[in-house]
Amino acid sequence: xxxxxxxxxxxxxxxxxxxxxxxxxxxxxxxxxxxxxxxxxxxxxxxxxxxxxxxxxxxxxxxxxxxxxxxxxxxxxxxxxxxxxxxxxxxxxxxxxxxxxxxxxxxxxxxxxxxxxxxxxxxxxxxxxxxxxxxxxxxxxxxxxxxxxxxxxxxxxxxxxxxxxxxx
Length: 168
Fold this sequence. Notes:
The structure is a single chain. By secondary structure, this protein is α/β, with parallel strands linked by helices. It has a single domain, classed as 3-Layer(aba) Sandwich (Dihydrofolate Reductase, subunit A). The protein has four helices and twelve strands; from the N terminus they run E-E-E-H-E-H-E-E-H-E-H-E-E-E-E-E. Strands 1, 4, 5, 6, 7, 8, 10, 11 and 12 form a nine-stranded mixed beta sheet that branches. A three-stranded antiparallel beta sheet has the order 3-2-9, with no helix packed on it. The radius of gyration is 15 Å and the shape is globular.
């Protein structure tokens, strides 16, 4: 498993069908989930595709961006544009900070085999979604699940679970 990056993580909120979004928006905004996202990603890198980047309502403070895009051109010292997965991985390999992949669905799928940790807010409900996180059956390797307590928000039960890939 020498293609794994110990500092490369995924973070997402998914419904029972692995849905993560609809029309470039979150399916539901759970304050605890958003607080957890902020706590983990603060002062680290967030890696995303260009659609996720353009869907953000504002620039997230105290984070450095890595945006995977063939066409995007942004002049901002906190934003690094990469044109390929290989370029993104080369960039990640050269930094000490944690890198959190935040979407979208295609980006999650493309980086799954390189990721060492996945933080999922798993919502026990189904929503109308058009973008999905990779199903657990497609995760290669052996994953250890750190389970948290079941919480509730507006009648929806959810858990924020961490999956750590075992290094063999």
